Amino acid sequence: MYNGIRECEATDEELAQFYEGKMKYDLFPNQYLVLKREGIVVDKYKAGIDGKLIKIKMKSFDSQLMGKVKPRNMRQELYFDLLDSDVPLTLVSSEAGCGKTWVATCFALQELEKKKYDKILFIRNNIPIDGVGELGILPGTSNEKLKGYFAYISDILNPFMFENYLSSGKIEIAWLGDMRGRNISNSFVLCSESQNLTTSLTKMIISRMGENTRLVFDFDLDQIDHKKYEKDNGMMSIVTKLAGHPMFGMIELVDVERSPLARLASFL
């Protein structure tokens, strides 16, 4: 499956031909090229809309809440670059702990402070985890009922700032069932656990995006929680139909950065 990155092993001769312009690689717009020699990364590029290669420069994000954040590995470096671009639709896939939600949130907070966006909107399809029983009907307001599903955002920001940003309107958490009919403008939108979306739900979310809005879907196809999303998966539809579109970009992360303990999960 297309993952937004092409890693190529090259000899010294091939690298020389590449730098002389005598060797080219066929890439989609916004696809990354990682050149390696004997397994070691030599150079990184992104294909522009015009087909020209753009050399990747190290980027970092900076906000009052999160401080200065730098990529921890090569693929995160590409993810930083993709977020810090004009590509309005982004997909990021990985197993748990690779930083797909954390990095996007850090970037969104930076852009919020710059007043690029009015708010950060977090959405997800709040279905039970496969094998885990439901809690039943929860009391309280809509936000109070939703908070449990968005505890991961509280973990990133800390509970006090999460509540502060919610009350000030800088952050909004939304039930997917309320998305139809909305017009979301001047916002950074992060849809998490997007492996649990059908094609029609994915189309509905994208169709709600208005002017000056960025949309990021993060997902892990190994954590699909219902068989219906295996048969009809919105992320697979996006990749199949939009790979190569100039308004679309994707990154697959592979290195677990949460903790040495979290890395053990990949062995199970």
Keywords summarizing the entry:
30% helix, Archaeosine Trna-guanine Transglycosylase, Chain: A, domain 4, Rossmann fold, six-stranded parallel sheet, 10 helices, alpha/beta, 268 residues
Helix and strand arrangement:
Blueprint: E1 5-9, H1 12-19, E2 32-37, E3 40-47, E4 53-55, E5 61-63, E6 67-69, H2 74-83, E7 89-93, H3 100-113, E8 119-124, H4 142-146, H5 151-157, H6 159-168, E9 171-175, E10 187-191, H7 199-207, E11 213-219, H8 228-231, H9 234-242, E12 248-252, H10 260-263
Parallel strand pairs: 1-2, 7-11, 7-12, 8-9, 8-10, 10-11
Antiparallel strand pairs: 2-3, 3-4, 5-6
Helix pairs in contact: 2-3, 5-6, 7-9
Provide a descriptive summary of the structure in words:
By secondary structure, this protein is an alpha/beta fold. The protein folds into 2 domains: 1-56, Archaeosine Trna-guanine Transglycosylase, Chain: A, domain 4 (Roll); 59-267, Rossmann fold, CATH 3.40.50. Helices cover 30% and strands 23% of the residues. The protein is built from 10 helices and 12 strands. The chain has helices spanning 12-19, 74-83, 100-113, 142-146, 151-157, 159-168, 199-207, 228-231, 234-242, 260-263, and strands spanning 5-9, 32-37, 40-47, 53-55, 61-63, 67-69, 89-93, 119-124, 171-175, 187-191, 213-219, 248-252. The strands form 3 sheets. The protein has a 6-stranded parallel sheet, sandwiched between helices. Strand 5 and strand 6 (67-69) form a beta hairpin. Helix 2 packs parallel to helix 3 (100-113). The longest helix is centred in the middle third of the chain and has 14 residues, at 100-113. The protein is globular. The mean pLDDT is 93.
